[in-house]
Amino acid sequence: MASIKLDGISKNFPGVKALIDINQLVETGDFFTLLGPSGCGKTTLLRTIAGFYKQDAGHIQVSGKVVDDIPAYKRDTGMVFQNYAVFPHMTVFENVAFGLKTRKMDSKEIKIKVANALAQVHLTGYETRTPDQLSGGQQQRVGLARAMVIEPQVLLMDEPLSNLDAKLRVDMRDEIRNMQKELGITTVYVTHDQEEALAISDKIAVMNAGVIQQVGTPWEIYKNPINTFVASFVGDMNFLEGDVVASEDDAVIIMVNGHKIRTADSKIDHKTIRLAVRPEDLRIVKEEVSNNEISCLPGVIEKSSFIGSLIRYTVDCGDNQKLVVERHKPQSEALMPNGTSVFVEIPIDSILNFNKETGERL
Amino acid sequence: MSRFKLRSTKADFWTLVTIFGYVIVIVLLIYPLFNIFKASFISNETGAFSLSNYKEFFSKTYYTRTIANTLIVSLGGTLGALLLGVPLAYYTSRFKIKGKTMLATLAVLSLLSPPFIGAYSWIIMMGNNGFLRQFFVSIGINMPTIFGPFGIILVYSLQYYPFVFLLTSGALTAVDRSVEEAAENLGASGATRFFRVTLPLVLPSVSAGGLMAFMMSLANFGTPMIIGRNFHVLPTMAYNLFTSEVGENPGLASTVSILLIGVSTLAIFFQRFASSRRKYSSNMLNKQEVKSLHGLANFGAHFISYLIVSISTLPLAVVVIYSFRKTKGPVFHPGFGIQSYQKIFHDVPKAISNSLIFSVTAVVFIVIIGTLLGFVMARKKNLPAKILDPLLMIPYIIPGTVLGIGFIVAFNGKPIYLAGTATIIIMAYFIRRLPYSIRSSASILKQIDPALEEAGINLGSPPGRTFRKITLPLMIPGIISGAIMSWVTAVNELSSSIVLYVGKTMTMPVRIYLSVLDGLFGTASALATILLVSTGLALFIVNKFLGVGKETIAG
């Protein structure tokens, strides 16, 4: 078991700064996820930890030992690949045994270890199959068993579930999570799927343009995003822009489209700010009710989609400002036709304030 | 009723094509082969049916030795081709090698130039008075001459390694990068990774390249004829027995031909058996990264790559240079001049125009019929099409000399008299190259999604029109590059034309071969240069404008 320390890691590709001064500690036993859009540098960082890329600057430590000059085949990391990368000319058994054989392990011991690993991924009985006789999910289990059986210091996973279908993805996600907790193995996991990241991780690092934007628990990342990038990338988010017009006690008044919205005063010294609020925190009502806790914005229902557990409305509040509102456990009376004039209730404690220019949280 | 009619008209055209395919197979392959087979059982003395030819062949060491000889030079050439082709493929596909495209082009050029030109060029360099040999002698090293089995093996290796190189490069590029990274991640580095993961994955392609080299070596006629001296192989033996002025023996020649076909058939089955494991393909390929090497490793990779290609291109360069040397009659003089070219345009313009006319005519037929039959092979799943497919591949296993003998035996009497005509040579070009054309257009078609044709039909276009408006335009680049490749092989063809030609149907390769035998090296060099330049030009056109070709060569 091991911790990973990234100390000022930078990596350039021709014309692109893939990683810019990454400093991060991944603690022993953590399930640590790198989350971000494609091209954000998350896979580059993972492959740098694995030793497939050499960073241009900075140091990587595993368990306090600098591994910068250790080649990939000696780094003792187990990697699970996006496209499985099972050896097509070997059986399931040979695939899983490969790493043990290169470590010159005794063949009896190899048999036992491979059997255990295959049992763990529910592939007992598949030993003699070849990869082309396996489904995508089974191939990925082979990839997982193959990486874990060598008992590496750290497990690295590069979007291991992205090629699987939706149902299987959720099942495998839980299995990976359980197995990781059971073995307590330090894991770095790369994904672009924010839901997957929230569900599986101890900690998430949200990346964009080669920079880690925010690190935190799934709860912190979702509830307390530090900038508009994180706020919009993780979960759905509504943004509203308005001018600060007055200050009252511990709140400020923002004019959005000629309507007043109260938000917490966080030492706002800008004239214009950006407000953010999650769809599940909003409520659609027929009558305007405004007080110290709740502001109301009038609008017209533009469209609605019913997806079983909830209805999602898009409300046009004029001047190109639209709000997405979710109504959970919908009853039949909640159905409202498009064009209905309504009010959207915005609770003061659900609003996040951001600097309009920099996107930083206020 | 009307429904039935609609169905039958739809099937009509492709049914006709299939029937025509059978006619071609029967007339141009089965009938001549059957005639050779029959002739091999006809006694030369009595003219009666007997096993005497086979008895004679197997009772005399003089004959049986040719089987061993053939296997020695073919296996030697194959081994050499593998030893040159695999490293070159590895270095150029995995590492940054400067001038990589040029290396590949030169390799292909040396592959497509006729091997007997290479053989003849090696005589200039390493014959008794060869300039390279003289150079070594002058510094005290007594090099052996090029004549004999080792020379043949050398020429084969340098001639056919590009098959291995092209197929292996393709396979190496197609190996999923993640698979190799997985091996490295699990602790397997360098050599272990190469031998345990990379090599097994590309082995089917390596062995396919080796088989091509073996089949070509097996069928080669010009090289052993020119530098073999008294070292005989099956094709030269068959030719000698068939044509020699003293003791002509078509029966025994046929027996040798049948044995030659037997050996090549066995070779094909052996390779199929050896690489019977499935091919590995991934639909989620992570592309290979081309790495930069540094220091000594970088120098080594460049040195080996350039050395291999230089040595294989050297004979071609020598031929071109010698074509511009001053000559007086058959003798070279110091200095440069264009006498050789004046001489060939004066003496043998007919050979040049014949080569051009025969090859272009053959290519027109190859393209039309090859494309249509390719469509049948790729898209029609009915039984007649399935049976036709392997039948059309028969030319793969018939050496040119044997086909030539078969054509003479079959078409020199009732009901067809064709010996000595241009038609018989064009027919030989046609049938020898047809399978390659069918294979390449079928493989182009397999890359065209049938959904495109379905979309056309769904939008109201009938099948025939859909083929013309949608499928054919998508196939055109592949067809053109295939046509140029066919032309290159046809214009360089020696082994069947040498059997089929008469004075008025002389072609360039035949003229070169005869000039070399007569010691007219100037004439041979000038003609060979014309062939090389047109081959190079054709290759350039394919590469430059169509961006395909390597696949077509490798079949």
List the topology elements.
The complex is a heterodimer of chains A (362) and B (555).
Chain A: E1 4-13, E2 16-26, E3 31-35, H1 42-50, E4 57-62, E5 65-66, E6 77-80, H2 92-102, H3 107-120, H4 136-149, E7 154-158, H5 166-183, E8 186-191, H6 194-200, E9 203-208, E10 211-216, H7 218-223, H8 228-233, E11 238-248, E12 251-256, E13 259-264, E14 272-277, E15 283-285, E16 294-306, E17 310-316, E18 322-328, E19 341-347, E20 352-355
Parallel strand pairs in A: 3-8, 3-9, 6-7, 7-8
Antiparallel strand pairs in A: 1-2, 1-4, 4-5, 9-10, 11-12, 11-14, 12-13, 14-20, 15-19, 16-17, 16-19, 17-18
Chain B: H1 2-39, H2 52-59, H3 61-94, H4 100-112, H5 115-126, H6 131-138, H7 149-174, H8 177-185, H9 190-219, H10 222-227, H11 234-243, H12 250-274, H13 295-323, E1 325-328, E2 331-336, H14 339-347, H15 349-379, H16 383-391, H17 400-410, E3 412-413, E4 416-417, H18 422-447, H19 450-458, H20 463-491, H21 497-500, H22 508-517, H23 521-546, H24 550-554
Salient structural properties:
heterodimer, A: 362 residues, alpha+beta, Rossmann fold, OB fold (Dihydrolipoamide Acetyltransferase, E2P), 2 domains, 6-stranded mixed beta sheet, 5-stranded antiparallel beta sheet, 8 helices, elongated, B: 555 residues, mainly alpha, MetI-like fold, two-stranded antiparallel sheet, two-stranded antiparallel ribbon, disordered N terminus, disordered C terminus
Report a brief summary of the structure:
Chain A is of the alpha+beta class and 362 residues long.
Would you write up a description of this structure?
The complex is a heterodimer of chains A (362) and B (555). Helices cover 23% and strands 36% of the residues of chain A. Chain A has 362 residues and is of the alpha+beta class. Chain A folds into 2 domains: 4-233, 3-Layer(aba) Sandwich (Rossmann fold); 238-355, RNA polymerase II/Efflux pump adaptor protein, barrel-sandwich hybrid domain (OB fold (Dihydrolipoamide Acetyltransferase, E2P)), CATH 2.40.50. In chain A, strands 6-7-8-3-9-10 form a 6-stranded mixed sheet, with helices on both faces. Chain A is elongated and about 75 Å long. The model of chain A has no long low-confidence stretch (mean pLDDT 90). Chain B is mostly helical. Chain B folds into 2 domains: 61-323, MetI-like fold (Orthogonal Bundle); 324-555, Orthogonal Bundle (MetI-like fold). Helix content of chain B is 75%, strand content 3%. Chain B has 24 helices and 4 strands. Chain B has helices at residues 2-39, 52-59, 61-94, 100-112, 115-126, 131-138, 149-174, 177-185, 190-219, 222-227, 234-243, 250-274, 295-323, 339-347, 349-379, 383-391, 400-410, 422-447, 450-458, 463-491, 497-500, 508-517, 521-546, 550-554; strands at 325-328, 331-336, 412-413, 416-417. Chain B starts with a helix and ends with a helix. The chains are: A alpha+beta (362), B mainly alpha (555). Chains A and B meet through β6, α2 and α4 of A and α8 and α9 of B.
